[in-house]
Every structure is written in structure tokens, then in C-alpha cells.
TrEMBL record:
InterPro entries xref list: Creatininase-like_sf (IPR024087), Creatininase/forma_Hydrolase (IPR003785)
GO molecular function, one term: metal ion binding
Keyword ATP-binding annotated: no
Tagged with keyword Metal-binding: yes
Keywords for this protein: Hydrolase, Metal-binding, Zinc
Protein name: Creatinine amidohydrolase
Organism: Halalkalibacter wakoensis JCM 9140
GO biological process: riboflavin biosynthetic process
Cofactor(s) required for function per UniProt: Zn(2+)
Family membership: Belongs to the creatininase superfamily.
Length: 272
């Protein structure tokens, strides 16, 4: 995948435009997409740029599917996320929660000052999720922008026929899904000879939802991953991109049409 030659980067990358061109954009339905990833360890076989790379690859594919009627523009990826749970592993570069929150708020305020009404926080790092949920609401309150948060794995149900329930539940970091995706996007960045298999397991105290135990990666894993990276293939990654990009494109299109007032619209009652 040559993502930097795609529509997302060649036609819909906002910074390639001049201030005159940006001023002339239709901002009534326009949507800015801010990819938020991470630079952090993903085991011995994957690059530390994995999460941001996946964001770039998925959005590149999704933008190919959007028709010209949708004014959706991509901002430069915010590569650094909140990765404190991976500190101590070589290559992990993290922002504090406070810093990341302020950076996103400042970007949102700048979008507002440029006349935009909608911004999407497109996230591909699990460690960012809780923070982005909070920041999205704060940004809405402080600016009046319509703020959306989308995680790539919000659409994991699209992958149930491809991966085991165990992988989709416990393969949360550097496993089959992420390794397959990186193989599809930048195959040369993966060393499959070093790909491990390791799963955390705990039925009652989860690490994502429900009753919760706070954790860092060393609590879960010796290798720095959770999942079956050995099972990954480029072909699976290409299929994951195909399935997820369709849902991402559909969701971005819906966001461009969305108005906050629709939350209060009463259902239409048909007369008999």
C-alpha cells in the first residue's frame, strides 16, 4: 500500500492547501479528521510506529471510498499518544494525559478559528480511548464544535469471521490483527521470524470494560504483546483494511450530515 500517493494525502490532506483555498472550503458540511496514534513498543517484531501507521493506512483506504460530495479533510496525524503503560520499553515515546489533552484542545480551537464546525478524533491506540472520550466532550463545551470520537476497533464485529473470539477479545496489542495490518501497509517493517504468541487472560477482572484492573503492559505480558502474532498474514491485513475502511467511510459520511439537533427530533408517527 502506497498510502502517501492515495486520495487522502494527495487531494484531502488539509495542509497541502493554501490559506486562500481553506478559506473557500464549504465548512457547513466539512469534517476535519485528526488521526491520533502512538509511538510505543509492539513486541520484538513490529515497529514502534504501529498504531499511527495503522491510522494512516485505514484512513487512506477509507478516503478512497468517499465521494466528492463529502467535504472530509485529513489533518496531520498526531503520532504521539498517551503510552505511559509502555514506558521502560525501548522506543516508547509518550505524552502525559495532561499534555495530550491540551494539544487536542488547542488543535480543536484552531479548527474553530478557521471556520470549521466538525472534527473527528480518529484513534488507533487503546491507551488513548478514555482520555479522548473526556477530551471530546471538553472540546465540545469549550468551542461549540461538533466533536466525534471514532476508534478503529469500534467495528470489530466486521472481523468475527476472520479471527477467533479469543483473538478479538484478548489479542489487544501486537497480535494477529495489528501484525496483519502492518504487513499489509508496510510489509518490510515487520520481522515475522520474531513474532511471538502470548495472551493475557482474566475472565472477571477485565482490562477494557466491566470490572476493571489498572495495568501496565508488564503486568500482562513478557513479550510486550497480547495475541497470536505468528498467525498474521499480509492477505488478512488487506481484508481487514477492506472491511474496516468501508465502515469508517460510511461513518465519516454520516458525520458530515449530522446536526446536534437530531438528538432531540421526535420520531415521525404515521397516521392511520
Amino acid at each position: 500500500m502506497n498510502r502517501y500517493k492515495s486520495k487522502a494525502w494527495q487531494e484531502c490532506f488539509l495542509p497541502r492547501l493554501s490559506k486562500k483555498e481553506i478559506a473557500e472550503l464549504d465548512k457547513e458540511k466539512g469534517v476535519l479528521v485528526l488521526p491520533v496514534g502512538a509511538v510505543e513498543q509492539h513486541g520484538p517484531h513490529l515497529p514502534v510506529y504501529t498504531d499511527t501507521l495503522i491510522a494512516e493506512g485505514l484512513l487512506s483506504a477509507a478516503f478512497q471510498l468517499l465521494s466528492q460530495e463529502y467535504q472530509v479533510w485529513m489533518l496531520p496525524p498526531l503520532s504521539y499518544g498517551k503510552s505511559t503503560e509502555h514506558l521502560g520499553h525501548p522506543g516508547t515515546m509518550t505524552l502525559s494525559a495532561t499534555t495530550l489533552q491540551q494539544v487536542i484542545l488547542d488543535i480543536g480551537k484552531s479548527a474553530k478559528a478557521s471556520g470549521f464546525r466538525r472534527i473527528v478524533l480518529f484513534n488507533t491506540h487503546g491507551g488513548n480511548i478514555d482520555l479522548l472520550n473526556m477530551v471530546a466532550r471538553e472540546l465540545r463545551i469549550e468551542t461549540g464544535l461538533m466533536v466525534f470520537r471514532m476508534n478503529a476497533m469500534d467495528f470489530r464485529s466486521e472481523l468475527t469471521s476472520m479471527f477467533s473470539e479469543k483473538e478479538l477479545t484478548y489479542g489487544i496489542h501486537g497480535g494477529d490483527v495489528e501484525t496483519s495490518l502492518v504487513l499489509a501497509i508496510e510489509e518490510g517493517w515487520v520481522d515475522m521470524e520474531l513474532a511471538p504468541t502470548e495472551f493475557y487472560h482474566q475472565e472477571l477482572l477485565d482490562i477494557k470494560g466491566g470490572p476493571f484492573a489498572a495495568w501496565v503492559i508488564d503486568d500482562l505480558s513478557e513479550s510486550g504483546i497480547s495475541g497470536n502474532a505468528k498467525a498474521a498474514t499480509k492477505e488478512k491485513g488487506e481484508e481487514v483494511i477492506s472491511r474496516l475502511s468501508k465502515k469508517i467511510a460510511e461513518t465519516l459520511a454520516a458525520m458530515s450530515e449530522f446536526e446536534m439537533e437530531s438528538f432531540q427530533q421526535k420520531p415521525t408517527v404515521k397516521s392511520t
